[in-house]
């Protein structure tokens, strides 16, 4: 088992073909089927889709922030449900 990468360390991205159904991109959040397209990957299981790879570092950072904002909103909504769900009798 590998230890988690410290949150401040640089993550080296490698290029490799992706063969997967419903593979998600950790930068833009898209989910697609891939048959050998080149992905960015890292030892921490990170995946970057071909579109984000082409976008470049500055755009990748913008996309990461956008995805983080979506997840923050989803987390707030999920927490707002705690204690409010009345299941059928
Ligand atoms: Zn992407």
Summarize the structure.
This protein is of the alpha+beta class. 34% of the residues lie in helices and 27% in strands.
- Number of DSSP helices? 2
List low-pLDDT spans: none
Largest sheet: 3 strands, antiparallel
Strand share of the residues?
Answer: 25-35%
Q: How many structural domains can be distinguished in the coordinates?
A: 1
* Total count of strands: 3
In this entry the ligands are: zinc ion
Shape designation = extended
Distance between the terminal alpha carbons, to the nearest Å?
45 Å
Order of helices and strands: EEEHH
> Which structural class matches the secondary elements?
alpha+beta
Structural notes for this entry:
The protein has about 90 residues and is of the alpha+beta class. The protein has one domain (about 15-80). It has 2 helices and 3 strands, in the order E-E-E-H-H. Strands 1-2-3 form a 3-stranded antiparallel β-sheet. Strand 2 (about 30-40) and strand 3 form a beta hairpin. The protein is extended. The mean pLDDT is about 90. Bound molecules: zinc ion (ZN).
Task: Throw out a few tags for this protein.
34% helix, 89 residues, three-stranded antiparallel β-sheet, extended, binds zinc ion, 3 strands, 27% strand, alpha+beta
What is this structure's SSE topology?
Elements: E1 14-24, E2 31-41, E3 47-48, H1 50-55, H2 57-80
Antiparallel strand pairs: 1-2, 2-3
The structure holds zinc ion (ZN).
Zinc ion (ZN) is lined by residues 25, 27-28, 30, 49, 51-52.
């Amino acid at each position: 088992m590998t230890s988690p990468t410290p949150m401040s360390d640089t993550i080296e991205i490698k290029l490799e073909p992706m063969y997967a159904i419903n593979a998600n991109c950790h930068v833009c959040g898209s989910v697609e089927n891939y048959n050998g397209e080149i992905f960015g990957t890292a030892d921490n299981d990170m995946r970057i889709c071909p579109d984000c790879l082409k976008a470049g570092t500055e755009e990748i950072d913008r996309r990461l922030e956008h995805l983080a904002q979506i997840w923050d909103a989803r987390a707030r909504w999920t927490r707002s449900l705690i204690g409010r769900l009345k299941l059928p009798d």
